[in-house]
Every structure is written in C-alpha cells, then in structure tokens.
Design brief:
The structure holds three protein chains of three kinds. Chain A is mostly helical. Chain A has helices at about 1-10, 25-30, 35-65, 85-90, 90-125, 130-140, 145-155, 165, 175-200, 205-215, 220-245, 250-255, 260-270, 275-295; strands at about 70, 75. Chain A contains 14 helices and two strands; from the N terminus they run αααββααααααααααα. Chain A has a two-stranded antiparallel ribbon. In chain A, a hairpin with a 6-residue loop joins β1 (about 70) and β2 (about 75). The chains are: A mainly alpha, B mainly alpha, C alpha/beta.
Amino acid sequence: MDHEVARGQGVAAAAPAGVEFGRRGAASAFFAAKRRTRLALLLVPPMAWLIIAYLGAIAALLVSSLWTVDSFTSNVIHSYTTANLHEVISQPLYRTVAFRTIVVALAVTVIDAVIAFPMAFYMSMVAGPRLRRFLVVAVLTPLWASYLVKAYAWRTLLAPSGPLSWASSGHTPGYGQTAIIATLAYMWLPFMVLPVYAGFERMPRTLLEASADLGAGGWRTVRSVIVPLVFPAIAAGSIFTFSLTLGDYIAVGIVGGKTQLIANVISDQVTLNQPLAAAISIIPLLAIVLYLVGMRRTGALENV
Amino acid sequence: MFLSARARVALRLLMVVGLAFLYVPLAIVILNAFNKSQTFAFPPTGYTFKWWHDAANSHGAIDGLWNSVKAGLGATAVALVLGTMAAFAVQRYRFFGRSTVSFLVILPIALPGIVTGIALQNAFTLFLHISLSIWTIIIGHATFCVVIVFNNVQARLRRTGTSLEDASADLGATGWQTFRFVTFPNLRGALVAAALLAFGLSFDEIVVTNFTAPADVQTLPLWIFNNLFRPNQAPVVNVVAAVLIVVAVLPVWLAQRLTDDVASSRF
Amino acid sequence: MRRWMQILRMPAAVLAAGLLLAGCASSSSGSTGAHKAPNIPMAKSVGNGEGQLNIVVWAGYAEDGSDDPKVNWVTPFEQQTGCKVNAKIGDTSDQMVSLMKTGQYDGVSASGDATLRLIYGGDVAPVNTNLVPNYKTVSSFLKNGNWNSVNGQMYGIPHGWGANLLMWDKQRVPGNLDSWSAVFDKSSQYKGKVTAYDSPIYIADAALYLMATKPDLGIKDPYSLTSKQLDAAVSLLKEQHSNIGEYWSSYTKAVQAFESGTSEVGTTWQVIANLINSDKKTTVETVLPKEGATGWSDTWMISSKAKHPNCMYKWMNWIISPTANAQVAEWFGEAPAQTLACQHTSDPKFCDGYHAMDAQYAAKIHYWTTPQTQCVDGKGNDCTDYSTWTTKWQEVKG
C-alpha cells in the first residue's frame, strides 16, 4: 500500500519496468498514479482558471458594487455602502430598461427558434448527406463574418436611403427597438440553428416510424413526438440568444437609434462610476443565472 | 418518410428563406466593398477596386490582423489544454460535482460579455495591478474558448466510449501508450475542429477585448470598431469584412470534414 | 463532510477569492467637500524623446493624414522628435477622464469640464510653462484661468476654444435656422431627425435655451442649476427625446448620420460640418444661434503617470507652435490659442471669423465646466453636481 501511495504522490516517480524513460517519465507516472490523483491533476488547472481567475473576478466585481466614487474626481472610494444597490432597486430607469431588454431578448429568442426549427428540420430530415454538410457549412460561415460589419450592414439596410427603403419605396422601420430585434435575431440565428440541428440528429428515427405505425399523421407526429424531443435543444439554443442579447450594447448602439438596453446603461456608467456599473450588472447576471438554472431542468445544458 | 410532398416543398422553401435571411446582409457587405460611393448609396453608383488597394496598404488593418492572429493562437492553445483536461475529467471519471463543472465551463460564454469584460478589466488593473497587454487579451479570450473545446472533446469522448481503451489496456499497453496510440488519434479530429471554432470566436470578439486591450494593441475587431463610421475608412472595413467572409468558408468546411458526426462539432 | 457543507464549499471559495482580490485593490481617499490639488511634482527639464507618445485627443486634434492626406501635423512632429504618436480619440470629456485614470496615456486635450476633475483627482501634473517656449505668445485671456490653473499654478497649455453650433442639412431642411428652437421645440417639424450630444453636459444646452425662453426660472449660468432649474432642463430634454432620431458622441457617427439622412438638424462641432461638406454627399450649414451657445476651451495636460513625459512636453510645444496651431484650428474650426497662428492660416481672415483675439467675444461663450454643489458662478452652495446630472441624463435617454 505504501509504495502505491508514494507513487501517487510523486509526479516524477520512477516508472515501472518495461516503459521507456526519458521525457516520457512524467507522462508515464501520470498514468501510473492513482485514479484520484489523475483526476485532481486533470481538474485543477481548468477549475483554478475558471473559479479563481474568472469567478473570482466576477465576485470582486460584485464586491466593488458596494463601493462608491468621489462625486467630483470619480476616484473609487473603498468604503462599503449599499447606496448603489439602493439606487438600482429604487430608480425606475433601471427597471424600465431591464424590462425592455428582457422583452427584446425573448423576442429575439422566439424569432430565432421559429426560423431555426424548419431550417434544422430540413437539414436533418429531408436533405441528403452531401447537401446536409453543405448546409451546415452555409449556416456556420456567417458566424465568421465580423459581428461589427454585420451590424453596420443592417444599419445600411435600414438607412433612409438604403436597400430596404429602395425595395419598399420609402418604408423602413429606421433605427429603434424593431431594428434591434431584427439585427440581433439575425446575428444569433446560427447559434440557434446548430444546437437544434444537433437535437434533430440525436432523435431516434425509430420513434417516428412507431408514431406513423400508430396512425399519427405528419403534423401530429411533429407536434407530439418531434417537438418534445427537440425541445431541450431549442432550450440550449435559447441560452445563447438570450444571454447574447442581454449583454449586447455595440450592435444596439449601431442600429438602436435612441433606444438603450441594459448593457448600454452599464457601459455608459462604467466610464466613470464603476461601482454603480457593477451594481447594475447584477441585473443581467441574475437574469442569466436564473435562466440557466431554469433551463437546466429542461436538459438544455447537455444539448449545448 | 412521413412527410407529404407538399410539406417537403414548404420546408425547402423555408430553408431557402432562412439562408437568404442569413446571406442578404453579407451580400450587401461584399457589394459595398466594390461600391464607388463612399456612403454606400443604394443602388451603387459604380464599381471600383480602389478600396481593395487601400486595404492592402492600411497599416491599421494589417496590424489589427496580426494582433488578432496572435491573440487567437494564444487563446486557442490555452483553451485546447484546459478544455481537454476538463473534458477528460468529466467524461472518464465519476465524481461529485460533475454537472457543476459543465455549468462552470459554460458560464464565461453565457454571462453577458460586458460583465465579463468589466470584471476582468477590474481584476487586472485595480486588483492585480498588471498592465493590460496582449496577454490580458489572450486570458480573456481563453476563458470563454474553453467551453468550445470542452464541448467538442466531451462529445467525442462520449461517442467513442472506453471500449477501445479497455482493449488496449488488456493487450498490455501502459496508460501513456494507450493515450498516445488509441485515444489521441480518435480525438485529433475533434481537437482540430474545436481549435478552428475557438479561433474563430476569438478572432471576432469585440466586447471583452474592448475592456482587456491596452492602448497600443488593436485587434482587428477593435480596428474595425474605430473605423466603421469614418468616411475614408469605412469602405476599407467593408473590404476586410468581405475577405473574412470568403476566407472563413475554408476553416468552417475543414472543421466539418474533421468531425464526421456533425452534431458534435458545435460550440 | 456534511452535504450542505459540500454544497457551500464552492460559493465560499469564490467569495473568498473575490474578497481577496477586492482587498488588493488600490484605494484612494476622495473628499467630497473642498478639493485640494494633490502634490505632484512638476518637470524641471525636458530631455530626449522616449520614442513614443500616447495621447487622448478630441477628434481632429492629431491628424496624421489618414482623414485627408494633406492634413497632417503628426508626421512632421514624429520626424522631428522621434516620438511615435498613438492618439486615442475621446468622444466625451467623461471618456477622457476615464482614459486618463487608467494611467496608460501621457497626456490629454482636456476641455474645461474635465480639467478640474483631472487636477483634483491627481491624474495630471502641473505644467512647467518655462519648458514650453511657444506658451509665451498664447492669448493672455487663456492663461491662469479658473479652469486650467490652481493657486496661480498652470496645469496645462491652452490649445484653442470654440462653440457648439447648430447644424442642419441644407438639402433636406429649407431655409436658414437661427435658433435652438429647431431642436428644442416640442412640435418640431424635424421629428425623428433631431440629434443631440450624448453626454450629461448637454443639459447645459437645455439650460441655456431656458435662460432665453423662460427667464422667470432665474437661471443665470447654465452650469449652476438648482434642483428646480435642473428639473426644468431635464423635462425640456425629455420632450426633445421624442423628436430625437439618434444621439451622437462619436464624431464619425454624426458625419455618417447626416450623410445618410438619419439626422437632419442638431448640435455639432465645426469639424463635423467641414468633413460632411468636403465629402460632398450632402451639404450642411452651421450657425451660432441667437440664444448663445455652450462651448469648450481646451487645454493640453500631462499625466501624473506619464511614461513619456519628454515626448509630451515636446508635443505640447509643437501643437501650439504657430504653424501647427493654425493647421489644427483651421481643420477643426476653432479659435487658436496661439496668437502668432493667425499669420499662418491658409485663409487670412480665419482668425477674424472666429474672433480669435477677441477676449470679450470669448467671454460670452458658456464653456464646458463641471457643475458642482458649490455653484461654479460663485452665487451659492445649492447647485446640483455632475453626478446628479449624470443620473438625470440617463433618465432623459430612458
């Protein structure tokens, strides 16, 4: 027992006979080590990164929301006060903007789900194998086009003298909430199509045959068999559309006109009043965490 | 199939509409890369290659490209290592908190970018007192690229299972030999696909980069952001974007080829 | 271990990490009462250039030929001093203050609403004007102002000054405008095409309009507003909000908005009008309306954490040299601080048009300054301060 423990503890321990020494010594020792140690070695670096570096930074941000700034010089003062939290809760502005943001996020999610569902359906169920691969590439490629340029393309599209106005003889919604919803729905569509498509792929075809055997028509099968099975994948896609919308301020600034979403308010405040910005950040943070926890129950996290 | 012919036609139509929705704005971008009018009047007043010439000579664009490539490679490398380690831990071992690990890994990409950006900027400048540099950009990008590698590797590990590895061990191979000759070749495709996707994500990232980049390092998205509305530079930006769109097809297609189970090559 | 202890392990670890990180944060004691300029040493001499210069500038202040190949005073500077210039454009004074606080920049072209904040915040160092030879011939009414000096010590080198103007698209707006009512009128005929400057300091513009239209409110200075006066200005802005198409802070976005027809009328800087007119997609006209205007008087300041102080001093001397100051004043459309610049402008009547030497005219512009509870016009202690303005501005934008 002792020498096994010793082996587990020594990373550079001598390797058993029959294995080459030299620079493979550490690797062999890794595999020879106890299972628990191996697990620890595998988990510690990524978890250290995520927990200490990332979550620690987020926690520090939240702690900083309890600070305040000098009202004139904007230097941060390290005295703890709940003034910022109080401001965020009591000022109607933040409620209004948060509500507007959630409405936009939900609208974008629904639109994307509605567009993505038939697309994924076609790709998975109707298209042949070669066409299927081509379509996946076609859906993924726009993700590589610069996000900023896509937002600007929509600004051009909706401009008073732009293509939409030209095509519809002068009618364009202009820049505002409608433009935001359309642009963001456009941006995040591939993020919705791919998980839904993966969900379709994972669906056992035998169930569809069984459904047909039991006498269900096409529509009924879709409603009662396919949608419930694919729903976790839709939920997974919705995590992206929801969270990406909740955090977006750049595209909103480009096509949103005078409308602002919660991330715009945060980015305005972070210039000089970082503690207040941190306090306002709690709103989208909380919204996402709640959404993730809610989606967890639908099994979305396994489908991402 | 249980679908009627009419249903198939309708689906095909919806697919085309969806694809058109995706590509019409991109077509406008590519069109404007040749548009003579500087304010992108529609229909275009004429066509020219002038902007392409300007783009090739634009120091800002080329520096931006180089910085983005450096940051992307760094972030992808870190993400590959950390993501693979986490995926192995979750897929090959049973321990309390497995689902928590999955939850944690997805957080950086699920939480609003601005929150991640502010938090990291604070951590770097206010708390740790390290000045921003290309490394802080890499750290920021790596943090949310981990999830891509994690998902791809985990999916591949789940698909291939342990049977081959068990067989290898039964035949007398050591742990390292099994990894080197059995597990890793299986993983290679997933790793390359994940690397391509992670690189793409890092390459186009603007929000977190805005907060973690120093004054003198501009990635390509930052350069685009600063030049998007400038009358003389906006057409050059369109050229850069057009090039990106066309060039992107290759790695995307490559990523698809490497993962024959297309369902596993996602983010 | 107990189950609940296991569950709490992780959040506890995270919280601990957070508090630990927070504990390492640099603290600064800020006094909200009377402000004192921190003791920061002043440079005694200017040595050789360090090879690099990072500055925060207003749009158009550091042109290197990328906007117009003929407009370039940065490259000659780089050639003469070896200091490679990296200019970051700040869209608003708030952004500039924020950028200077990062300590990554050597200097800034600060307007009057940023200068005192930077001085009292310890972000800028006093300037040794003896090290800047061209300072001698700067307009005397710009020296030792209450916005750029403390107790007789100068904290910067004056750059130039000008007013925020009213601009309209001549192709889409008939006639000539001469009043801010074009943007403040509730039943504006330009509904959806009005633009305004996206910064809390714009509240002063509303207050200025009220000075002329609602004198019974008793506003004497647009930056010294009591609560009641501030609320009046804010409700005017909320009315304006329904006519606004887009707010602007980035000058390029303003240019694009007018050229594409998104905006047709609004407040602007002359440089924006110049850029639009030279692009020839549409034509705009500017005017200083009859109610008066807010404006800015800009000062070059050196960071207290400057990594390249020699280059910064060289830049400050360069930018107010007669030729360079003339160039930047003409490009931007402002009155140069350098008296000798007027002989170097390409348009010999330029300085006259901008009243560059006219101290009395200069005194009539309501320059940007940071509102404080102690009224900046010295008439009382019950004024609203800038953080209140910031909150109100957020409300206006909704």
